[in-house]
Amino acid sequence: MPTARAAEHATRTASVDLQAPLTTLKGVGPAVAERLERLGLRQARDLLFHLPLRFEDRTRLTPLAALRPGQAALFDGRVTHAEVVHRRRRMLVVTLADDRAQILLRFFHFGANQQRRLSPGTRIRAFGEPRGVPGALECVHPEVQTVGNTPPALESHLTPIYPAAEGLSQNLLRRLVAHALPGMQALPDLLPELSRQGLPGLHPALEQLHHPPAQSDTRDAPEPAEPRSPARTRLALEELCAHQLARIQHSRTPRDRRSAPVIRPPGALWQRLRQQLPFKPTGAQERVTAEILADLAQPQPMNRLVQGDVGSGKTLVAVAATLAAVEAGYQVAFMAPTELLARQHGRNLAQWLEPLGVSIAWLGGRQTANERGQLLAELADGQRQVAIGTHALFQEEVRFHRLGLAIIDEQHRFGVHQRMALRDKGNGWMPHQLIMTATPIPRTLAMALYAELASSVIDERPPGRSPVRTALISHERRDEVIERIRAACGAGTQAYWVCPLVEESEQLEAESAEATAERLRAALPELSIGLAHGRMKGRERDAVMEHFRAGGIDLLVATTVIEVGVDVPNASLMIIENAERMGLSQLHQLRGRVGRGNTASACVLLYRPPLGDTARERLEAMRRTNDGFEIAEVDLKLRGPGELLGTRQTGDRSFRVADWARDQDLLDAATRLALQVESDTPRATALIERWLGSATRYATVG
Ligand code: ADP
Ligand code: MG
Question: Is the CB of 312 under 6 A from ligand 1?
Answer without folding.
Answer: yes
